[in-house]
Amino acid sequence: MDWLYSLFVEHSALQAVVILSLISAIGLGLGKLRLGGISLGVTFVFFIGILAGHLGFSIDPMMLTYAESFGLVIFVYALGLQVGPGFFSSFRQGGVQLNMLATGVVLLGTLLAVLGSYTLDISLPDAMGILCGATTNTPALGAAQQTLKQLGMDASTPALGCAVTYPLGVVGVILGILLMRKLLVRPEDLLEQDKTADNKTFIAAFQVRNPGIFNKTVREIAEISLQKFVISRLWRNGTVSIPTSDTEIMQDDRLLIITAEKDAPALTMLFGEQEDTDWNKKDIDWNAIDSQLISQRIVVTRPELNGKKLGSLQLRRHYGINISRVYRSGVQLLPTANLTLQLGDRLTVVGEAPSVHNVEKVLGNAIKSLKEPNLVAVFVGIVLGLALGAVPFSIPGISIPVKLGLAGGPIIVGILIGTFGPRLHMITYTTRSANLMLRSLGLALYLACLGLDAGASFFETVFRPEGLLWIAVGFGLTIIPVILMGIFSFRAMKLDFGSTCGMLCGSMANPMALNYANDTLPGDNPSVAYATVYPLCMFLRVIIAQVVLMSLLG
Questions:
Q1: Largest Cα–Cα distance in the chain?
Q2: Which of 49, 174, 348, 470 has the most CB atoms less than 10 A away?
Q3: Are residues 497 and 470 in the same domain?
Q4: How far apart are CA 263 and CA 202, in angstroms?
Q5: pLDDT bucket at 226, cuts 50 / 70 / 90
Q6: Are residues 383 and 521 in the same domain?
Q7: How distant, in Å, are the alpha carbons of 473, 486, 516 from that of 480?
Q8: What is the pTM for the complete model shown?
Q9: 192: how many CB neighbours lie within 10 A of its CB?
Q10: Could you report the per-residue pLDDT of 166-192, keeping only the tens digit for each?
Q11: CA torsion sign, 457 to 463 to 464 to 470?
């Protein structure tokens, strides 16, 4: 049985891989379980690591440090790549207000943590760990630990604070939403106010019966219509064609139109009659509708198209095709001329086969370049991120230079490369599954090490008055900013309740609470608001954790 002892107990590189893999596998498996519709996901790895540490399992300290650091770097860099394309655009189109409110949540929670440290006799490192758990933010915890190591202080205690407050951090946001809904929200406030309705697609067929548009061109009809629409196909006298802006619409023409569902009644009045056929089913074979045209989904892979308006390409005029739908991150968008393209957008192109193939060359459609991970960009980005993290910055009022460290440097470089990389002809795009794989792998590795290191003294900390105080403080750091900023957003700023909930979930980095909001509220406003504020808040929490420790302990 010596081989079994060496595999699980005797410190070695092999034993470290086995222990961390087992912790991650068990944690990820249990993380899929749902209790009341809530699951902890990859975070369950943290608690399995704590249990393993409590039971006496350990790995070589050098291996632990390496695996924890490497996992953290992979996670935050991949996170930066993911949020990068939307980071700067989140400040446009109403995003400023949402981000300012979310920043208020971040700053209020940080202020309360610092005040709690001084008034309740909790050390500042412990208070930062409690704050990280209360806001379910493990990247900020990593940043705080790296800062403490830089200051030559014990970096293990924040992990204990994070561990004891994390579960209530997950639940606290949901409880805050429930409380606001019970006390503040009227039934009419929950009516769907979907800000993305202008871009969500709905397909319908219309028979032209309105004499007012007979012999008018598509351009002229669009000018008199307040609704946005795209004519995908036109059937006339048994033939099908792709209409251009100069095509005249005749009596009894049959039009296949893409628009927003809320605009369908108005377009029925405009064109005359809407058919009963359901064109929005997922199993429709568009190529079988007619033999003259084909429908093909083409992926935007040419970096020079990133950020360009769809109308500026003039694809319909040059190639006689039509773009009926645009898919981005699983969401269908209405292909208006003002739609800004992003690398990885999937365009449904309708037209004759030769024309569609020509458009394919224009857009790129180099799917292999997207499916095959560009590891050069990943490793170069990690090196640049670590280099940036090692650069000392002097901040007035702080006695020693501040370093962004393993968490701050990679996430900033990830954001910058994810945003500007395509403009510099760097292929930084990864599929959602590939990015999720990198993030999950790095986070699981980091959490397994974190839990294993904290597990030895975890239960001693929890089951004593100090641990109970930490739990109470952590719950306060979760619920107080959520309630106060939620009321301010909903009542004072007149933000709809769905967007308020999404903003709160994004500012607290709480996807579990977002799932609850999506399941119980109509429309996509929670998801839109979450995506708008998440990049900035994630960045702020990572940086603020370091600045607070440096300024007050340095």
A1: 90
A2: 49
A3: yes
A4: 9
A5: confident
A6: yes
A7: 10, 10, 19
A8: 0.64
A9: 13
A10: 777 877 888 888 888 888 877 656 654
A11: positive
